[in-house]
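Listing S7. Sequence submitted for prediction.
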Amino acid sequence: MSTIGADTVLAVFAIFCRIGGCLMLMPGTSSSLLPPQVRLFTAAALTFGLSPLLLPTMRGAIGDGEPFTVLSLVGSELIIGALIGLASRIYFLALQTLGAVMANAIGITAIPGVPIEDNEAMPALASLISLSAVTLVFASGQHWELLGGLVRSYGVWPPSEGVASEIRLTALLERLSASFMLALRVASPFLVYAVIVNLAVGLANKLTPTIPIYFISLPFVMAGGLILLYQISGDQLIQFMTGFVGWLEVQ
């Protein structure tokens, strides 16, 4: 009967730190509606399932098991896991931000939303788009690709090398730029719609200054925006998922 040594326990805990740090910020599992116990058990189950594959790499990083070495390893693993999860979540944060812009463009910002992904309530349109995108990620199986990228990260970011802040922050900045460009492409029809509609309303208000054109036009602006959303919402989600999947494939 084999016994489990201290180095094995420390290695498994270090693996748990990277996986748990990723799940803490990954889209879907980072939702405030998901109980912490579920997230904890999910991270523990993934850790035990992946430990036989990753133990040889992690044992080499632990070395003699000195306290300073173990603490620095745990800290670097938490940071690397959090960066991987944040790099994926940035796409959905950008989509939420542009979703709020879209809601403002069609005049439904005042309609209260429900806190779904975060503790703060977002406009109903932003919550609808972000929740649909998260659902598509799980329905299409892309969460397995993200977990596969987490496993492959042990080859890209070996535990023994620690955290190189310059490389990590540069990669995070690139993801931030790419995610907002993708979200801007998704929201661009509504931005163009808002410019055209507001220009038309402004011209009409100049021609008839005694009539409150702005308040009269609000229902029509909102109706036009909802019709536009009905027509292009599917293409918007496809565009977003194409960009997100493209990022997953290069990880």
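Caption to Listing S7: primary sequence and predicted structure tokens for the chain studied. The helical segments are 6-25, 36-62, 67-105, 124-139, 142-156, 165-207, 213-249. The chain has seven helices and no strands.
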